[in-house]
Amino acid sequence: MKLLILSDLHDDFWAEANRNPFEGLQDLMGELDHLVIAGDLSNKPKVRWKFAFERLSRLHV
């Protein structure tokens, strides 16, 4: 089983810097069985989680 664990991603900081924290993972995603996001996905979750999940959904293989 192949598992990738990311923690304290704070996707909103990456977006503000016009960077993608998932860059380079696209090739790896096809090989993974599970992706675990532990810790903070973003700051202000009620406001910013939707955007973070939209960015994550682009990784769908």
Report what the structure shows:
- This protein has 61 residues and is of the alpha+beta class.
- The longest helix has 13 residues, at 45-57.
- 8% of the residues are buried.
- It has helices at residues 11-16, 26-29, 45-57; strands spanning 3-7, 34-38.
- It is globular, with a radius of gyration of 12 Å.
- The mean pLDDT is 84.
- The protein has one domain (3-57).
- A two-stranded parallel sheet has the order 1-2.
- It has 3 helices and 2 strands; from the N terminus they run βααβα.
Query: What is the C-alpha radius of gyration, as a whole number of Å?
Result: 12 Å
Largest sheet data: 2 strands, parallel
Q: What's the total number of strands?
A: 2
> β content, as a range?
15-25%
Helix content: 25-40%
The domain count comes to 1
What is the H/E order?
Answer: EHHEH
* Structural class computed from helices and strand pairing: alpha+beta
Uncertain regions spanning at least 5 consecutive residues: none
Which strands sit side by side, in order, in the main sheet? 1-2
Number of helical elements? 3
Based on CA inertia axes, which overall geometry fits? Answer: globular
For this structure, the quaternary state is: single chain
**What is the terminal separation in angstroms?**
17 Å
Mean of pLDDT:
84
Protein name: Calcineurin-like phosphoesterase domain-containing protein
Organism: Yoonia phaeophyticola
